[in-house]
């Protein structure tokens, strides 16, 4: 079963000379961003943050063409203002207390409700939507893929630094996400009926607005007939983001196939998933995980091999996604590259400010190094509205 998919990428706006995040971009800068990537531009909760929300894709070639185009456009437009876009999940030295909330009613309410937790969440994620045919229970599909979520986080980690310090976590973004309600692993709900009962309970008791949403690491979208992967850190390198999107789409497709022998979500699987989730946050790809086979310890490469053994690649996209995932394991994620660059800059005698700027510029350069920018429109037809 071939599923359509969509991708959302979040970026911070930074000064190219200093690497600092813009606390309050001018209206001209915001208009510049919007004009560069319209109609795919979406504002975020901070004025210094934007999102590109893709159209619906049928394959990774379409996704690559689209993001090459949009990242290239955005980078060129911002460079004329002396700015760039920063595509990792956390900025190494942003002064988050100086950041300004976006002044629209929805975000004003978010900051009023969550106060310091909201103000501290200067973070960027990678979100992947995969379409699920109408009539299928999306909560049951989520339960089938839940065990593998920490692997997707480990492949994407890009937030090891915060306020000028190494945090000891490869995804400090997910540590901060845990401060929010309804933002960790989804509740253990057996099916869609249980999801609706849970949602109704929270609404009835005032814990969730009528139009409110959950921010789980994976969730059924309220706007689209999709399952949305939200656990991943933002990926500066486009190919890493495409790899994760391709792997997640493949996993969902496999779980939708009739006759698949996929165990139901048990308390034990959830315990293992929660433990692997913490290990992925803390150690990234260097962690030792609880494998799917007899719960024996495995490294990231072995864990990836287990995924491929259970859900073999049956398309070109899936084969390429698995191949690139192995490359990520071998070469490291953005988190590891950032820590290496910081160490190299310090060893070269740079000041701490200079060393942190080196990290910022590495992320900016990798985000804009798409190698396929063209002024032509993407070579495919799709609805301009994201999934």
From TrEMBL:
PANTHER family: GLUTAMATE--CYSTEINE LIGASE 2-RELATED (PTHR36510). Its EC number is 6.3.2.2. Keywords: ATP-binding, Ligase, Nucleotide-binding. ATP-dependent carboxylate-amine ligase which exhibits weak glutamate--cysteine ligase activity. SUPFAM superfamilies: Glutamine synthetase/guanido kinase. GO terms for biological process: modified amino acid biosynthetic process. This is Putative glutamate--cysteine ligase 2. InterPro entries: GCL_type2/YbdK_subfam (IPR050141), GCS2 (IPR006336), Gln_synth/guanido_kin_cat_dom (IPR014746), YbdK (IPR011793). It catalyses: L-cysteine + L-glutamate + ATP = gamma-L-glutamyl-L-cysteine + ADP + phosphate + H(+).
């Amino acid at each position: 079963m071939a599923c359509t998919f969509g991708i959302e990428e979040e970026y911070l706006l930074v000064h190219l000379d200093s690497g600092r995040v813009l606390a309050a971009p001018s209206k001209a800068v915001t208009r510049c961003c919007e004009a560069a990537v319209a109609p795919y531009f979406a504002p975020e909760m901070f004025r210094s943050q934007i999102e590109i929300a893709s159209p619906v894709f049928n394959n990774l070639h379409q996704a690559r063409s689209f993001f090459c185009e949009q990242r290239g456009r955005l980078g060129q437009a911002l460079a004329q203002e002396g700015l760039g876009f920063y595509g990792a999940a956390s900025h190494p030295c942003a002064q988050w207390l100086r950041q300004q909330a976006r002044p629209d009613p929805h975000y004003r309410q978010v900051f009023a409700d969550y106060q310091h937790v909201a103000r501290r969440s200067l973070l960027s994620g990678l979100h992947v939507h995969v379409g699920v045919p109408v009539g299928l229970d999306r909560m049951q599909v989520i339960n089938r893929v839940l065990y593998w979520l920490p692997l997707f986080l480990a492949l994407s980690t890009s937030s090891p630094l915060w306020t000028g310090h190494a945090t000891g976590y490869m995804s400090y973004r997910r540590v901060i996400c845990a401060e929010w309600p309804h933002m960790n692993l989804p509740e253990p709900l057996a099916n869609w009926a249980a999801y609706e009962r849970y949602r109704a309970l929270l609404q009835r008791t005032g814990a969730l607005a009528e139009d409110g949403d959950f921010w789980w690491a994976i969730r059924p979208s309220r706007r689209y007939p999709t399952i949305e992967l939200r656990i991943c850190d933002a990926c500066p390198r486009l190919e890493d983001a495409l790899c994760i999107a391709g792997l997640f789409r493949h996993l969902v497709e496999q779980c939708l196939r009739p006759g698949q022998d996929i165990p139901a979500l048990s308390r034990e699987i959830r315990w293992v998933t929660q433990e692997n989730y913490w290990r992925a946050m803390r150690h990234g790809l260097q962690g030792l995980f609880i494998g799917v086979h007899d719960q024996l310890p495995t490294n990231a490469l072995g864990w990836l091999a287990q995924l491929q053994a259970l859900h073999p690649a049956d398309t070109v996209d899936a084969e390429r996604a698995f191949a690139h995932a192995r490359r990520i394991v071998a070469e490291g994620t953005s988190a590891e590259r950032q820590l290496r660059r910081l160490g190299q800059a310090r060893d070269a005698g740079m000041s701490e400010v200079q060393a942190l700027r080196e990290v910022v510029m590495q992320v900016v350069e990798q985000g804009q190094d798409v190698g396929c920018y063209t002024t032509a429109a993407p070579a495919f037809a799709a609805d301009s509205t994201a999934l």
